[in-house]
Amino acid sequence: MTQFALAPVFLVSLFALFLAMAVTALAGEADIVGAEAERSGDGTWRFEVTVRHADEGWDHYADLWQVIAPDGTVLGERVLAHPHVNEQPFTRSLAGVLVDDEIGVVTIRARDSVHGFGGAEMEVDLDALR
């Protein structure tokens, strides 16, 4: 077989690789589309967060969201234990988050199993809720 006879096989393989990469990227990053916070009697916070992501199954889904202090410290995180293919967007809560009184605003961000962090984030003004 000559090198010219292998060229179509190589091109088909290359096309298949690009197609597979494009399909994986279709779901995009996980976005925060809603976030609410409520202070509990013990001084901790409960967050209710809505995430949107085109979950495709176990290989590509939103798997975590976090509450982040202005200095980047992770104050709390909610692990999302399974894909939400047929439930979009979806809302989950996290209680017992300890936030120092000096922190006035926190950021909520989500992660997906392929892209990591990088989708739309949302700030929550805790001072306005105190």
Which key phrases capture this entry?
single chain; 130 residues; alpha+beta; five-stranded antiparallel β-sheet; three-stranded antiparallel β-sheet; 8 strands; elongated
Q: Can you characterise this structure?
A:
By secondary structure, the chain is an alpha+beta fold. It has one helix at residues 3-25; strands at 31-39, 45-52, 62-68, 74-79, 90-97, 105-112, 116-117, 122-125. Strands 3, 4, 6, 7 and 8 form a 5-stranded antiparallel beta sheet that branches. It has a 3-stranded antiparallel beta sheet with strand order 1-2-5, with no helix packed on it. The chain is elongated. It starts with a helix and ends in a 5-residue tail after the last strand.
Count of discrete alpha- or pi-helical segments spanning 4 or more residues: 1
Low-pLDDT runs of 5+ residues are 9-25
Number of strands: 8
Radius of gyration: 20 Å
Which structural class should the secondary elements be placed in? Answer: alpha+beta
Largest sheet: 5 strands, antiparallel
The assembly state of the depicted protein chains is single chain
Form type:
elongated
Q: Approximately how much helix is present in the residues?
A: 10-25%
Strand content: 35-45%
User: Taking all residues together, what is the mean pLDDT?
Assistant: 86
Order of helices and strands: HEEEEEEEE
> N-to-C terminal Cα separation, in Å?
76 Å
In short:
The protein is of the alpha+beta class.
Strand-helix topology:
Elements: H1 3-25, E1 31-39, E2 45-52, E3 62-68, E4 74-79, E5 90-97, E6 105-112, E7 116-117, E8 122-125
Antiparallel strand pairs: 1-2, 2-5, 3-4, 3-6, 6-7, 6-8
